[in-house]
Amino acid sequence: MTALASDPPALDLQAAQSPLAELAEAHGTKFILATFVDMNGKPCAKLVPVSALAELEAGKLGFAGYAAGLVGQKPQDGDLCAIPDASSFTPLDAVRSGLALVHCDPYVDGKPWPYAPRVILKNALARLAEKGMTAKAGAEVEYFLVTKGDDGSLAPADSKDDGAHPCYDARGVTRMYEHLTEVSETMNALGWGNYANDHEDGAGQFEQNFDYDDALVTADRVVTLRYLLNVLAEQRGMVATFMPKPFTNRTGNGLHFHLSLWNESGEELFPADWDDRHGLGFSETAYAFVAGILDHAPALQVFLAPTVNSYKRTGATATESGATWSTNKASYGGNDRTHMIRVPDPHRIELRSGDGSANPYLAIAAAVTAGLDGMDRGLDPGAPCAPGERGLDAKALPPTLLHAVQELRQDPVMLTALSGSAEVGSYYAAAKEAEFLEWHSHVTSWEVSRYLTAV
To answer: Which of 3.40.47.10, 3.30.590.10, 3.40.50.1820, 2.40.10.10 is the CATH number of 125-445?
Structure first.
């Protein structure tokens, strides 16, 4: 199978070694986490001393891919060789002095591995580049800070965080000051541009924002931020979780993406310079991009909401705060958070149906593929929903992970969204179906309560 990504930088070894080695020396780095994620988003890494950077850059440090996780390999397959991208070099002195992280592209037999999520996103962006365009993305990472009891029960790490309407609560933010400010200062030291840190709608829930950037850079940063949040929370005796719906009665964790398209000259392609027909200040390109996402939304959802638990978030009708912010329809509107696509201004869209379990590489790649199809076909999304409308004619999003898998298998465009390969898409679909059936085979306390003496 031929992947779209370029050949490994090891072809020009001296040039490839130099930037990473120079960065490590400049930052006093002693060890590097050579990192990639599997299709579920699990970070996989080897801790590499800087004295072995040449071996890393030459692709000589292999991973047993089947053992790493969902990455398209069988036990008998050859090694995944992680080729580092020096531009992603990230000092992690907040975690350990002298530690850094670099994101890698897995290769097999000298070629980019088409099942690897970072390779998948690069392939999607390459298809966009063929049309003279690039994508930029922002991400809103929501998470809970919890403690886990001996019985497995979860509770907010801040025992005083128990209000009915905790969103934006200044006291809750202040009580978590040390954690939030350490994360903020780390992001700003890395040049990410952290601009807000807030208490979200659920007790124990927070969000920390950073500036948008090129789509690949943002996806890398989401993975890095999750790692940072996990490790820094653990150092304070807490668990940071991105689980879509860890509490039945509270708002779940979203992962919203802000997407925009630009041309090769660095000019935005979404704003219109005339009065557009739907009144949002969008160009025909932007409307077609939106239409493509809406058209493929049912199948796209398996990448945006990829777990069994995801659909307990999108299926929620209300929470303790009295609201749910997860849509179950493929609708769009202006500055209205009740829709799958929100248009806060003419420069971007906010794709709101993703949750905290989403793999950012796969989610952005699939969204770009859907939008690109809308542009190729010249689709029109129709008029946006007026404030308060719910899009009665909009397509319904899948109610379960199994339904989402079925939608993926019936959508040829989305099935080939991963490296342009139906083989990769079918592998992912089969894995997600197996995940659903594994969950379905477990007897839960709800079933015992409901059926034990029902007849």
So the answer is: 3.30.590.10
